[in-house]
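Aim 2, interim progress. The first record below pairs a target sequence with its structure tokens.
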Amino acid sequence: MDSLIFSSSRNASLIEKRHQQIVDRALKLFFEKGFHPTTIREIAKSCGMSMGQLYHYIHSKDDVLYLVHKRMQKIWFDYLKTSEMDKIEDPLQKLVTALRHTLEFMVENKKLLQFVYSESKHLDKKHLRVVMDMDYKNVVGFWCSMLKEVHKKKSIRGDLDFLGSLIAYLLVFLPLRGWTLKDKPIKKSMDSLVGFILRGLGLDG
């Protein structure tokens, strides 16, 4: 059970199922109406729940937004699994594969990324702190661990923790700032971004 969100149910699998249902239905409303105009009552109705039933699983829209963050990270990790990275032995090739698949994920889930980054500022301090810690641990931590594996084989210039954080930032460029590229082909932009990151790490050779 999620430590941040109290639920009256003790059935962990049911809680997970209901949280997924709430996120899926709420996102449709958020995309159509926006985060603030959407009410808890509308989320309950879209889930086929009464207000009382909904409050068994969440207490506020902040809870929903927090769950959206969790879902986004899970979708990303599940997407990375499709690349079969675990079968790649060379750390550098594994890094390149992760970069490319993450960029594909960013493009395919552009609307979700834009929503998360635009609305997270509205979270209360408790939820925001947990979301930031979760992002640092799961996203930045993922890239830092990959860089450390590469560094064992080939020297990387710079502080690896800083570089891991920078990579996490650069990879959201396409969904958040891709509009500046106008009609440039997406694949070419992805290749350019991967090349830019590798050159910055001193790994382009």
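The second target in this work package is listed in the same format:
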Amino acid sequence: VRSYVASSKKLSKATGVVRDTDTLTAWASQLADPGDRRSLGSDLEKMRSSTLRGALLEAKELLKTKTPSIELERLSHSGVVRRVEKVERRLVKRVDKEFEEFLSTQEVEVMHELRKDSKRLRHLLELTRNGDARPLLYRLRSIQDDLGAIRDHDLVIDYLRSRVRLTSTRSLVRDEIAKRHARLEDFVTKNRGQVRVVTVLARRAVP
């Protein structure tokens, strides 16, 4: 199981890089200046080809890894249930703490941790709650999507700052920073006063 999980994580990371390139490509395709579209499009096409090769190599390695066999009966064992409950409580506390901290600081690293932990908790609940936690799942998906959109702006900004030879780079960076700020403000406004709501919803989700 450890070997399979390790290989899966490598593939997930590699495909995430491809996804980032696709996000940049979609953004570049909407630029008004034809010259910028051509220059960035050509650069991103090469970048995607390289990242895709890496993802395919990881996929082939995963195919070579023996798929673990897990008996369904073992998942209902009391020890496994206790372990799941422990992990769930830990993730709920982390998400709430990170959520509260991000609303007050808007720090990028806190945002990344909150987005990842929201995803982990959502996946765990989808596997174990059998539909009993729909309000919490919706809440976690909303947080994950909103922060993912902010991260996409960061991705574009970082990429543009590496393309200093383009004469329009500075104005593009300014525009993207303004869009990021507006989206961040929307998130903070929408969620202000909702601290610890994840814990509340988690309690309601317990059968």
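Residues 50 and 70 are 36 Å apart (CA to CA). This observation will shape the mutagenesis plan for the next reporting period.
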